[in-house]
Amino acid sequence: xxxxxxxxxxxxxxxxxxxxxxxxxxxxxxxxxxxxxxxxxxxxxxxxxxxxxxxxxxxxxxxxxxxxxxxxxxxxxxxxxxxxxxxxxxxxxxxxxxxxxxxxxxxxxxxxxx
Amino acid sequence: xxxxxxxxxxxxxxxxxxxxxxxxxxxxxxxxxxxxxxxxxxxxxxxxxxxxxxxxxxxxxxxxxxxxxxxxxxxxxxxxxxxxxxxxxxxxxxxxxxxxxxxxxxxxxx
Lengths: 114, 110
Known about the structure:
The complex is a heterodimer of chains A (114) and B (110).
Chain A: E1 4-7, E2 10-13, E3 19-25, E4 31-38, E5 42-51, E6 54-57, E7 64-66, E8 76-78, E9 87-94, E10 104-105, E11 109-113
Parallel strand pairs in A: 2-11
Antiparallel strand pairs in A: 1-3, 3-8, 4-5, 4-9, 5-6, 7-8, 9-10, 9-11
Chain B: E1 4-6, E2 11-14, E3 19-25, E4 32-38, E5 44-50, E6 55-57, E7 60-65, E8 70-75, E9 84-91, E10 98-100, E11 104-109
Parallel strand pairs in B: 2-11
Antiparallel strand pairs in B: 1-3, 3-8, 4-5, 4-9, 6-7, 7-8, 9-10, 9-11
């Protein structure tokens, strides 16, 4: 059982480049989300989705786009990378059990923007 | 004021010691509470949920104090393998308001 799979694990971009971080889950979870983690800031929600075709903004959405065409996949797109987007990115999913749902995280993507 | 606050530590404790972490939250409408554990350069993983009546899982005990708006995690008989960062997580309204604390780092020393 793969759980939540993120690719790539590491990425270096130059300012202005675009890229897509991939996230896939095989647990049939309806809820998926993207977080970034920076030192001293904790995990901050970028975008989330409560089902295929539905997405919404989190706390820090600027500079990122998402789509949810299938239940399994939730890619995160950086439109024009900036050094401020250097961070560790985590994708997470959960069952639609409301406030008691446990988040399952991917292994993370370590992104450096130069 | 941050929505969820934790003492960042680090807490350096000897093996076998008992250590406790607190986490405060600002929104009284918060509905559910969790402790996650994050090892260095790894993803967070659920340690335990926190129930209103308090709950225990082996050496770990979680408590919720709604009146004072804090949750706590007690670790008894600390092991070297307990060294990690412990994240307090508060869910305020549905999926989108899952808020993480910045974490408390624990280092258990031989």
